[in-house]
Amino acid sequence: MEEAWGEDVVSKQSFRAQLFKIIRQAAEDEDLCTNTLLGTLVDLWLTDIMDGNSLDQMEWWAELESWGTRRDARRQIASDFVRDLLRIFELKLEEHDTDSFLSRMLAQFEEDSDLRFRAIEGYYRFIQDVQHTIWAQLPVTCVIGGHASGDMFGIGASALLKQNMNVVVHFKDDKPEQDHSAGMYSFFSELLGRERVRLAETARGCFDRTAFSNSVYELMRSQRLFCWLAPYNMGTYFLSDRFQKEGGTNSSELDNRDTIRRGFAVEKLRKQGAILDFLHRRVGSLDSLKKRRVLILWSRFTGKKGEYHPEHDTSFKGMAQMAWLAAELGFCVIIAGDKPILHEGVKDTFSRKYQYGDICRSLESYYGEPRCFDLTEFWTEPAWKELSGGKRVAQYQLYELLHRVCDVRHLGMRSGNMEALALLGYFVRYMEEDRSYGGERMVAWHETGIGYERILLIEPPTRVGKYIHYDRKLKVGVSQASMPPYITARNNGFPNTASRNKPRFSEQLQQFQARQTETFNSMHAMDSRRATFQSDTQQELTRLTQELKEKMTKPSDVSKYESGFTPEDLLQIREFLCLTNPRAENPLEEPPTPNPVEGRLGKLNLRQYKILSAIRTLLQRK
Question: Could you tell me if residue 489 is inside a domain?
């Protein structure tokens, strides 16, 4: 048994592979519970507690767990194994827990009835309980990769509520085009102060475990404090515990909200007059917005930049559908967030660039007054940079001002930014399709005082989203977010797609051309050899170009889907718009009540349906 645990067992993956084999052999080996094995398992327990994101990552326990249901010798082996493991784990905890409250928690767990089998069957639940207890009561350092920029809002809010919590951001080494570590470090520093944040970076521009460890330990040394490590999902569950189910009215939750709002600098607007002037230039006088409800629609093109969840990117047609629907219900609409992505693969860049302007102008033409405004990426404008000092957190002051003056609600596909809006106390609905990858985690916030509720769509509004959605439905046990290969190829081949990625395929072509030109010029005589070489070079260049083009070609299956929301999903959006805003500081008294008609669309205003049908033809653009 012991020789199976050599020094080469250094990673969780290799450890679990070894453990899985040993557990299978344990029925014939009564020395399973050797000190060597138990000591190694204790280290894995600590790893699970600090990085236990899902039951799937604890597959090594599943085999042992199955023994608890057997009627042979394995059942007794399993229960004895868990008993000994609990005892050693308790001793290990005491080394890191001077208050020993975790040890007491473990002892209570051990005293419960039918421990031998409950401990086996409830391992994942137990790990979650220990995690949440640590996060609530002990000093913690949350570790977040540079790719997880959507999680920084929840982590930042958690650290505002938990003063003995620090943050380490590390470089995304395997996919540098997805790395936002520098911007995330800046955000956390603005929010928490630089003394509580570290950026693990190296001159080599890749993840370095030594640099990462030094960042963690340097934080501990500077604060003279031992900290448990916490995974990126800590913010989700920590905040869920702080805003209990059906909450939002008790004093502790109100205090939590106030603390978060102060941290995000929206409690006191020091430059309110300047923000009003900026808004006036972009959306006109706020006096007109006070008379109508305001819907802020969030635009997202993160997936087209080569990052996560392309199925949650914005559909131009879907945006038009929501804008017309809201206008018909008496709303003014503000489009916020990302501008459309423009790159060499877009056939009509001019049309794409002005899609939102077209929506705004068509609504103004129909109603005879401005009803829709394009506020996308306002933070890039020189006037705003001068006003805000370039700080990311300052952006929320603009939405806070709208919140104070108007009856405002926010609607967009699931993203970390939508989480921040809910935490600040605004009326928010996020959308995602059924079986959305990663969607189950945010269910922890539903029906809590946070106010982060979901509209569950039948399917995403984009063609690509539908393609991914139905492809995923055919696959069982999808382990990661899908990225169609042609999008990856475009991000590698076209500038202005992936936000931090050089167009590698184009570089390859350029390098090939340069290399062949150098070789050609080094030949002395203009003879048949040079002519043959030049011909071969041209053929190879043509082949590489054609290969790149084929990789970037959109599959025909994508085009078979129709962009836009389904009528059933539009009805769900309409129901949200017809709700009274429970968070408005100046709510309008009369809720919108369009005249309903019967039929396939249910209670959807007939005029709305005609408008939506008309723009279906007008906005059949990619």
Answer: no
